[in-house]
Design goal:
The chain is α/β, with parallel strands linked by helices and about 325 residues long. The chain is built from 13 helices and eight strands.
């Protein structure tokens, strides 16, 4: 019931107009959203870099409904890549394909993705394609494979995979044959029981299995490390705030001999800064997912709706240092 209500609120124009007018609402959201403009986001990344932490920059917004919106979103991502290069910050870019046309016109999406990857390649930067919910999984993987076949290499484009899905192990093993670099997350979308594990314990167990698969693949690829400019990630990027999953990854990597510099941990901006700083101090690459933009209200509400327990998670983290 609560989850459905939060989803409703994320789409309700009247609620957005009301909530975005509250000073307290932005004060809360700004802990987890790096402002509304590219300069705002660049300043946040500079602060992270000063702490030894790199970033991946995400322009908020998805599920565009017109060609004009998809084109505008693409232009925004190109601007991000320009800004990162101009500022010299240690950051790459994360994108959602529904933001640039997937589901609206997949040919348009492919063309927009090609434009983005060409720009990233010219700057020797990296684009991480976020994985959305299961209606888009096959198309997302198809577009990634098409990009790799068109000459974009594994140092230009990578993917996110979700441990909640039954199919992820098979997808990951197939793509590792092409050397793809991954961000591993649990996945927060609401999925049907025929596609996803309904129990948290199973999601966690699959997360650990996928962590082992990625670490083993990194070893087989001679343990590529985070690039000096902070843009090109290692093969495994472990995206979680779950300390048990983090400890498992660290222990398994140490057991099999994977260097710390070849194992990246990723977390959301504003959440568990204590763990971010601790991992960085221990010598692990830490990358923070930095969302920004005027669409912060739908983003914030969807984060809560994806898992209502996040309401307390966000509130408690607001008071963490």
């Amino acid at each position: 019931m609560l989850r459905s209500f939060l989803i409703y609120l994320s789409k309700a124009g009247w609620a957005q107009r009301m909530v975005t007018g509250w000073k307290l609402a932005w004060q809360t959201a700004s802990r987890f959203v790096a402002g509304e403009s590219v300069p705002d986001a660049i300043r946040v990344i500079q602060e992270l870099n000063e702490k030894g932490i790199v970033a991946t920059l995400d322009q908020l917004g998805e599920h565009t409904t017109t060609v004009e919106e998809a084109t505008h979103s693409t232009e925004g991502i190109l601007e991000i890549l320009d800004a990162i290069d101009k500022a010299g910050v240690k950051s790459n870019v994360s994108i959602k394909l529904t933001q640039i046309g997937m589901g609206l016109d997949d040919t348009l999406c492919s063309e927009n993705l090609t434009r983005i990857l060409h720009r990233a390649k010219s700057y020797k930067n990296f684009v991480r394609i976020d994985m959305e919910d299961t209606p888009y999984t096959d198309t997302t993987i198809e577009l990634l494979n098409a990009a790799l076949s068109d000459g974009f290499n594994i140092q230009t484009v990578g993917l996110v995979v979700q441990s909640c899905l039954y199919r992820t192990e098979e997808d990951t093993r197939k793509l590792l044959e092409r050397g793809v670099r991954f961000r591993l997350v649990k996945g927060a979308y609401s999925e049907p029981p025929d596609k996803a594990y309904p129990k948290k314990a199973d999601v966690d167990a699959n997360f650990d299995l996928l962590t082992k698969i990625l670490i083993d693949a990194a070893l087989a690829a001679e343990s590529p490390e985070l690039s000096e400019d902070g843009r090109i990630p290692p093969v495994p990027a472990i995206g979680t705030h779950d300390e048990k999953r983090i400890d498992f990854a660290k222990q398994y990597a140490e057991k099999v001999g994977l260097p710390k510099e070849a194992l990246e941990f990723q977390m959301l901006y504003g959440i568990r800064r204590d763990i971010q700083n601790q991992l960085a101090a221990e010598g692990y690459p830490v990358r923070v997912y930095v969302p920004f933009g005027t669409h912060w209200y739908p983003y914030f509400m969807r984060r809560l709706a994806e898992r209502p327990a996040n309401i307390w998670f966000f509130i408690s983290n607001f008071f963490r240092k």
